[in-house]
Amino acid sequence: MSMNWGLIGGGEGSQIGGTHRIAAALDGAFRLAAAALDIDAQRARAFAMRLGIPKDRAYGDWREMLEGEKSRPDRPTLITVATPNSSHFEITRAFLLAGFDVLCEKPLTTTVAESQEIVRIARENGRICAVNYGYSGYAMVRHARAMVARGDLGRIRVVVAEFAHGHHADAADADNPRVRWRYDPKLAGISSIVADCGIHALHLASFISGQEILSLSADFVSAVPGRELEDDALVAFRMSGDVVGRLWTSAIAVGRMHGLGIQVFGEKGGLRWQQEQPNQLYWTPVGRGTSIIERGVAGLSPEADRASRVTVGHAEGFFGAFGNIYADLAERLRARQEGREPNPLALSCPNAEDGLRSVAAVYAAAESAKSGGRWVRSATSIDL
Amino acid sequence: MSMNWGLIGGGEGSQIGGTHRIAAALDGAFRLAAAALDIDAQRARAFAMRLGIPKDRAYGDWREMLEGEKSRPDRPTLITVATPNSSHFEITRAFLLAGFDVLCEKPLTTTVAESQEIVRIARENGRICAVNYGYSGYAMVRHARAMVARGDLGRIRVVVAEFAHGHHADAADADNPRVRWRYDPKLAGISSIVADCGIHALHLASFISGQEILSLSADFVSAVPGRELEDDALVAFRMSGDVVGRLWTSAIAVGRMHGLGIQVFGEKGGLRWQQEQPNQLYWTPVGRGTSIIERGVAGLSPEADRASRVTVGHAEGFFGAFGNIYADLAERLRARQEGREPNPLALSCPNAEDGLRSVAAVYAAAESAKSGGRWVRSATSIDL
Amino acid sequence: MSMNWGLIGGGEGSQIGGTHRIAAALDGAFRLAAAALDIDAQRARAFAMRLGIPKDRAYGDWREMLEGEKSRPDRPTLITVATPNSSHFEITRAFLLAGFDVLCEKPLTTTVAESQEIVRIARENGRICAVNYGYSGYAMVRHARAMVARGDLGRIRVVVAEFAHGHHADAADADNPRVRWRYDPKLAGISSIVADCGIHALHLASFISGQEILSLSADFVSAVPGRELEDDALVAFRMSGDVVGRLWTSAIAVGRMHGLGIQVFGEKGGLRWQQEQPNQLYWTPVGRGTSIIERGVAGLSPEADRASRVTVGHAEGFFGAFGNIYADLAERLRARQEGREPNPLALSCPNAEDGLRSVAAVYAAAESAKSGGRWVRSATSIDL
Amino acid sequence: MSMNWGLIGGGEGSQIGGTHRIAAALDGAFRLAAAALDIDAQRARAFAMRLGIPKDRAYGDWREMLEGEKSRPDRPTLITVATPNSSHFEITRAFLLAGFDVLCEKPLTTTVAESQEIVRIARENGRICAVNYGYSGYAMVRHARAMVARGDLGRIRVVVAEFAHGHHADAADADNPRVRWRYDPKLAGISSIVADCGIHALHLASFISGQEILSLSADFVSAVPGRELEDDALVAFRMSGDVVGRLWTSAIAVGRMHGLGIQVFGEKGGLRWQQEQPNQLYWTPVGRGTSIIERGVAGLSPEADRASRVTVGHAEGFFGAFGNIYADLAERLRARQEGREPNPLALSCPNAEDGLRSVAAVYAAAESAKSGGRWVRSATSIDL
């Protein structure tokens, strides 16, 4: 039976909203029951009704939705926050405090202190607060994580992460408002491409290696003249477990579409994965040839099998990955309803702590870049 | 608002059933309202209820479902038939005659005459009878079709289609019932790999080129000893518009996962596409270099844009393609409800005529193979 | 110490001549000592002298060269015949009869009977008559052959070969003399693309599988209007050892550069190789994942090691492959000079029998195509 | 007519020696006339004679060779120095001072000061002193350089270079003398993987962009315990023309074979190239799709055409690239002999200044790494 689901943000024409609706519907686990979809109240209500939400649950505003839903017996089992970054903190906090479980889009918040507060509130209230690092839902990313966890690679030595696209390369776009705000510190904060894309790659580095980022040394550049924030960055980092990290991320890499990729090198072997061809994982044991591990073949880890919906060779893509975040949450929420332990595999879904660590890493990278590449510790490695 | 949807077949553990449920849910257009999911009545009802269908619409049998649903005011707007091939004819026929619109899994029926009857009934009753050639839903397949239709390639000369996998290569599997029936003429009919996989490639050849298959010359072999039906086939064919066709299909191609691919060569250029990397289409105008056309970039055909849900570089896969078949049907059904013309782009969804042509082509290929490669006309090119 | 080498044909600007000179020089085994490089005597002599050949061995004509060289004590140890196809027979025959060892460009001759005579002469005179199927020199092709020979694939079931390019796709080229002659039966004989490119793929199918082609069924088409000979062909064939073959070859496949590839499927596994990325061989044992076998890694077959000159990852290409034909011949010639048995690995170099079998297969394919795809036996499978 | 060539180092079994002999022979421009091939005098002489060098020019030692050759009328037109790095300076210096033209293996010398002296000597003596950055000989690398030079990319913003392999990943190899010396500062100097492999990537970054490296910030790690020098490094750098650089290089990247690649991003477009598939260059103009530029097609730059020996689709590899260094030198040497200006395209061959700049960049990177990533200026950007 499907659970009631509430969505905040993701109005008409928004890509992220459409993707959340697809992902939540994919397995039939969630049914959109209430929503505040747009900053414009009228548009918000109209779009919600067009999506089939009854009038009384088609809200014009998240506060109105909180009021209207918090006491209903059929209130949403899960709230997704897909609003602009600057409102994540306020909305997520309010719903957690009202006892809702929340899936917040990345980044969790725009400051480290806010993320720490979210972590604290979620813990104190016993709420799930997930953060949508959707790429961690790919079956072969989960298989990579499982291979590392079970020791196939031995101790991890170096993780090389990359997220390069070229969609902000055109200087003629400088006045395009959809691009310009991203490089304006007043609107985008301390970092642009690292906070927007690099953060996914840093999260994957942690997710797969099972280690936390401790410190970073960064080189940020604004390759397109006139930008205040970086559109290309190189970051060296250190993780727990003595793991070395490398990240290159760029928004001016003309010809690269959505170049999120990761390579993990350990004592006993190396793994390589690319988001644009997500069904294959390349695995090379030391001293042996490279094998192509295909999603869907027999003998994969339970983590991969669980994250896969069709047989081998049928390209699974972004919706499946994203849907796995919802599948994890569905399992955790159902287990709680049923008073049982959730399937432990569902616990890998990124949570507020992961959100905090990522935000802290971005801050440390930005600080390093400002000081000429000095190594800066990531806050979460020391406190909380 | 979503429409009521009925599903026949696709019981627990069935891959095709799960995929239909995902595809129908993807855009929120259909809501599973009634079902007869399994040949075992008890299992059928129990699984339907676990999927959230109320008890009175959780049927034990398709006849029971037909009786129970045909007079309901909220009867399903669309019925999907996903049962074993041999029952497609009877079920599809019965629901069409009762005035339902139907999406039937491929092959439409197991004989040419039955397919002809389905075409006739659908026409006479003004019903939609779609056939699920799901690969035709990929955005880049639709773009290829649009490029051909608008003349980018000039006259098409040769289409080279391929569907090769190796999942039936293990002779030790000979007694595996999941494999064995496929090579038993009593259960699988006149053809195995051509009817199962080659048929998709033949359909794509027609779908993209916009031409019908007229005649074929085939070489069938049973590479694994003991099989009565072919597990590897090479087929030359001719299409309308003087287009030449080539097909290789195999179930013993060890190392090939789900190798559906197509190459289209015209006077002015050539196109190449592979199902396992569905987001890229390779295009080479005569005398120029090859371009990689990425799903999601600006400037694609309306056909491709409509079939795409996320921005470039986010791998779209099988669910999106399959979901596009449902999206086409949703548009056609809604247009009828609303008394308007459907978006003409929604009409590309394969229908009963396409189902008939494919079945006829398989029969002609099998007949050719039996007679040492003699060219055999495909029935639908002459009558109906 | 290098051996004296004679070259006939391959004049200035000829690609094949340049390639032979590079291949022969690659390992320092051969030194160009005498040549008749052009049909124009003056140009022949001038170019030979520019290449450093002394005036008295810079011939204007192959007959003059035969006269001049046959009695010299330092006469060439090897003669390469790289003239137009129609003169291969006469020249090769004459040099073999004069006791020279010969490497003849493919095709060995233009008729089956001529090829049979060359085989007979070479045998009766104890001469080496090699045929330059240069692609068989690639290290990974040799490794594939070795894997088949040592049983890694078990019994071979199906070989799928392909050689597709698009360099004759432009109808505007119809009057281009460099293209036109290829489709004129008076100049090109009974077949165009099969005789020119398909023949390499057929040879590779035999070379790797270790089997002979017995019979063929072919569909030839002239996709570009006005051509008398085929520019696209599909061929089914049967080989000894109950091996099934498939070939597609084309000159109008716009976007394909030099698409020679082969897939070999056996009881125990499958192999795939593409000439355009020749350093990788893809290997999938039944029931296992695919491995990428890289040229140059430890543990390859002696056949592959011997055919490789640099370490892994340094792309080896066409010159290396071609050079391996010369390396094989150098070893065989030196062994004879030294009165010892040659390294048996040097014997895989294609010889006159291979040349004959290929020519016979092309003839059988052409005959089949003329008779609507009837299966035709390849002459060499029965006589000689 | 071929020119006399002398080789120092590259004894029996040495890969680099064999490659130089192949590259020098490829076009017939050079003939091995004198050599001192091994540190062991007897082996040096024996191997030289086996290669066909007359006894009196088969030397046991480079000093003996210098004495023996310097006054001969037929002395080598070009001397190649392929000895261990530490002797490059002494030998190159001596031959330059004796008036020979030299091709020295990379690195030119082991210190910046020595490289500066070589540059000075070559200039003062009017000698060619080339340095063998062989990867700059690939046709598509030259085409990339030409595209940048003619402005196709507009101003270059970022160059991303990579050279990753995994051949030193096995900790069990720690005592393998072929690996161990590379991480011992007493034998290898100040840097291991950056000096050995990264230096090629840095050179390519300069070669293609046409800019010099000015300063660097580096993170060196010894991922395999017990190593004193780095086996993995991340380097940010700045070039003239306001170009930003990124380099990752590694010897522990298990599964990477010889991962030299480069991406160049400019205002108007981006280029990508990988050494392991050297015949393709990927080019994306801003706002357009990606094109695959194939070596050998019509319409390439003169730089690419000149560096290419066979038609499109015939994989050209490492020998061709390496041979292009020799082809450039042959043209320069011949032009001097003939008293004419050389083809200006032959001037792109890397010379002593390039060798000096690369050595200086490695030193600056090593110094930066020692000081925690501080930006360090590369010496050659200021003096000389």
What does this structure look like?
Four copies of one chain form a homotetramer. Chain A is an alpha/beta fold and 384 residues long. Chain A has two domains: 3-135 and 347-353, Rossmann fold (3-Layer(aba) Sandwich); 136-346 and 354-377, Dihydrodipicolinate Reductase, domain 2. Helices cover 35% and strands 23% of the residues of chain A. Chain A has a nine-stranded mixed sheet with strand order 13-12-11-10-6-9-8-7-14, covered by helices on one side. A five-stranded parallel sheet of chain A has the order 2-1-3-4-5, with helices on both faces. In chain A, helix 5 (112-125) runs antiparallel to helix 12 and helix 9 (193-209) packs across helix 12 (352-370). Chain A is globular, with a radius of gyration of 20 Å. The two termini of chain A are 38 Å apart. Strand 13 (290-294) of chain A pairs antiparallel with strand 13 (290-294) of chain C.
Characteristics of this structure?
homotetramer, globular, 14 strands, alpha/beta, Dihydrodipicolinate Reductase, domain 2, Rossmann fold, nine-stranded mixed beta sheet, 2 domains
